[in-house]
Please model this.
Amino acid sequence: MKNKNVFFLERAEKSLFAILSICAVALFVLSCEFRKTNSKITVLDALNAVSGKNADWKKAKSLAEKAVKQNPNDQQARILLAIALEQNGQIASATDELKKAVKLDESNFLALYTLGRIYFESDKYGDCLSPFVQANKIEPSNGAALYYLARTYAKLGRTEDALAKFRQLAQFSDFKSRPEPFNEMGVLFVEKKDYKNALAYLVAAHRRAPENHKVIWNLAVFYDKFTRNPSTAISFYNKYQEVTLINPELEPRRSKARERIKALSLKAGRG
Model:
């Protein structure tokens, strides 16, 4: 596919996966044989600072820094500090903290996963591969880690590895009804010029999320560019405008949809 930018790929929300990491820290601290060490108490205070609607990341960062000073070997304190640093825009410092956490215990899933996620969100795909591979080995049933690993393979051009991981992910109970793995496989098959499989997976993604604007856009472009089916393409471009009307930030793409509708209509003699 000459222009990969024609597809607007379904992506996981950064904030969602940050929240998953935070919840994992909280569950670990609360479920372990809790010893009221100073660092653990401070970590709980930091978690309380970001619970609820009005998360105070500056306070959480300050408390996490305190917890690390109280016990430099407290992995959860370092992981939480890394997440707080990330939320405060200090990505390099967050990465450093996670490296230290991994060094303390190379089998810590949460440290590896969070390190990989931050690398991924920073577009450092070569750097995030190893943490995700290790995290996936430690917890092969963790859907979030497998999803990121599959997307990392895709970013690195390792298409067959990516497809294998997305197929595996699509079998997970919490992903069977979600569009992400199917949409991603559809796009990968387009890149392989296997349009039959591409359409099957994009339709499967749409079946699971008929109002998902990213899936709708992909189908609109697919019918427009790869099947030369203008009437179906127009219907999806119209649907895209309908479902994104409340999203002002998507106006540029709606404008492109209108341009394609006009062009396709003229070509079909309907203009």
Observations:
- Confidence is low (pLDDT under 50) at residues 1-16.
- The chain has 14 helices and no strands.
